[in-house]
Amino acid sequence: MKNPVIIIGAGLSGLRAASLLAEQGIGCKILEARNRIGGRILTTTGPNNPELGQFDLGPTWFWPRYEHTITSLVQELHLKTFVQHTEGAMLFERYENQAPERHILPDHSMERSLRFSGGVQSLIDALASKLPPEIFDLETRVKTIKLNDQNSITITTELADGQTKEFIARAVILALPPRIIAQQITFIPSISPETNLNLINKPTWMAGQAKAIAVYDEPFWRKDGLSGFASSWVGPLQEIHDASPNTGSGALFGFFGMPPDVRQQLGEKEVLEQVKAQLIRLFGPSAIKVRTIIYKDWSADVDTAISEDRIPLQNFPYYGPITVSGEWENIIAFAGTETSTEFGGHLEGALQSAELAVSKIIN
How confident is the model over 52-74, as pLDDT tens digits? Predict the structure, then answer.
C-alpha cells in the first residue's frame, strides 16, 4: 500500500486539499497542532448565551461576484448564506470629544458580500463531514520533515503529552502560515535559502489583528437608520461592521487600530472596556445594554503569529506562490491564503491555493 499524502494544517486549505485528494482516490492524513479543526476560521457563541447565535472571530464573508471558487463550493455543499447588512448611514469618528459624523454612502458603493448562516464554521464542518474521521490527528505538532528518498518522507511530531510520533508520507502539503513553517519546522535536508526567505517574508494574514464582537438582544442601530458600519480615527476599533446573525440577536464587530503590544500591555479587560465606551460614543445609550463581548487576539495565538507579526502592516502584503527547487521539488507543496496571488487574505485564496497544491502533488 502506498504511503499517504500528509497535509499539515486542518484549516480551510488543508481540508479542501484533503477533499480533493479523496475525490481522486488518493489516501491522505491531516496533522493539526490545535485541538480543533478550522485554523483561523473560528466560530463561537457568547459565553453562557448560545441562544444569541454564532459569531465569527476569524474571516466573516465572501464576495460572490468576484470569488467563483468559494461560490461554487458553497452551492455544491448546499450551505445557507445571507447578505451582509449594509443598509443605512455610516458613522465616521474623527475626534473623541466630537460627535461622530453621519454619512449616507452612494448606492452600490459597497460590494455585496455574503455570510454563512451558522458562521464560516459551517463550511469547515461540511468539508470535514466528507472525510473519514480517522484521517485527522489533532494536537499533533510537526517538528521535522525528513526526505528519505523520492517515495518516502518521515514526519516527526510532538503530541500534547510530550511524546513523539512518526508518520511516513509519499508527499507533503503544508497548509500553514508561511512564517510558522519557517520558524517551527525543520527540513532535512534544508530547503533552499530562497524558499526559506520567501516563507519569512510573507506576513500572516490577521496575525497582528484582534477582533471584538459586541452582542445585543437586537440590532438597535438599524432602527436609527444606521448600517452598523463605522470608521474611527480614535479607536480602539478602527473599522466596525454589523455582525448580526440573519435572525434574532444583534452584533457589532470591529478590527483594532490599537497595535498588538498595546493590547497585550493593557490586558483583555481594559481593552474591552475601551471597546464598550467607543460603541456607546458611536451608537448611543442603547449600546450600554451589551449582553457579552467576545474577543480573540490573533497576535497572541502561537499557532497563528510569531513575534514579527506584531509589527503593524503599512500596506497590503505581497502574496503569491512559494516555489520549491532542488531535492524537495515535487515532494512538498505549500497551500494557504498567503500563497494566493489574486485573493491573498481571503477565503477564496485559501481554496484556490489548495487546488494548486493538490494539482502539483498529483501531477
Answer: 899 999 999 999 999 999 999 99
N- to C-terminal Cα distance for the chain? 19
Three-state DSSP class for 287? helix
* Average pLDDT of span 162-191: 97
Give the pLDDT confidence of 222-246 residue by residue, as tens digits. 999 999 999 999 999 999 999 999 8
Determine the pLDDT at residue 247.
Answer: 82
Query: Phi/psi at 132 (nearest 5 deg)?
Result: -65, 135
Query: Tens digit of pLDDT for each residue in 307-319?
Result: 998 887 767 788 9
How far apart are alpha carbons 155 and 29 in whole angstroms? 12
Q: Under the phi-then-psi rule, with left for phi > 0, alpha for psi from -120 to 50, and beta for the rest, what region is 188? A: beta
Position 23, amino acid:
E
How many Å apart are CA 298 and CA 110, to the nearest integer?
27
d(CA 21, CA 26): 5
Residue ranges of E strands in 80-209:
81-83, 89-93, 101-103, 114-116, 136-137, 140-149, 152-159, 164-169, 171-174, 186-188
Task: Express as a percent the part of the chain with pLDDT over 70.
Answer: 99
Handedness of CA 223, 228, 233, 234 (dihedral sign): positive
d(C-alpha 271, C-alpha 119), whole Å: 25
Buried b or exposed e, range 291-318, using 16+ CB within 10 angstroms: bbbbbbbbbebebbbbeebbeeeeeeee
Q: Which residues contact 210 (CB under 8 A, 6 or more apart)?
A: 255, 256, 260, 263, 271, 295, 296, 297, 298, 299
Give the separation between CA 178 and CA 336, rounded to whole angstroms: 8
> d(Cα 160, Cα 141) in Å, to the nearest integer?
8
Are 127 and 39 spatial neighbours (Cβ–Cβ below 8 Å)?
Answer: no
